[in-house]
Predict the structure.
Amino acid sequence: MKSSVPIPRGGLTLLAAAFLCAPLALRGQPPSAHEVARRVDRQYNLLHSLKASFTESYEGLGIHRAESGTLLLLKPGRMRWDYDQPHPKLFLTDGQTAWFYVPGEHQARRLPVKQLDDLRSPLRYLLGKTRLEKELVGLSVAPDQKPAVAGDVILRGIPKGMSERVSQTLLEIAPEGLIVRIVVEELDGSVTEFRFLQQRENVEIPDAQFHFVPAPGVEVVAGTEFME
């Protein structure tokens, strides 16, 4: 099992770096989308759980919003976003149902995962054993996009089933195959960006973290739009 110590950016051993980079250097070509996607698949298909800090920013329709919190992923199919700044709120999936709740409100929203149309959806593929190239339509390298960290690669595509809402999604991939940034550009011109920091693999996460039980007096309603 992998260590739960935070994964260092750029901290690969010389042997691992040579394994990942030498074949491409010998050809004198940048990595293809297929090669990068396979690296991501290897990284996440061996993953059992992940814990990370995240930041989320939204710009569009005259609104600017910046938030942060903690992300938990646990296979199979469980995902929890705990927002703590600037205000607490919770988004989670237990594999079957997605929940959205703001502490102190009198309603919690619930929706079957299969009906979820949410910008956090690209991360759901990490919770199973699948291929990135099947989840993002038209996957390609985006050489016109500058990565936040030198040495990372930017992939471009559209999440499957979201072409009526999303114009493109950019994934920034670290050399070891971790997704460190997601940028979602919508057809209305708005842009949402997620960054993932201090990622820790295969940490112990209690299953109870992914069960939502509404407090007394909280009404459960069918959710439609979960991004707020």
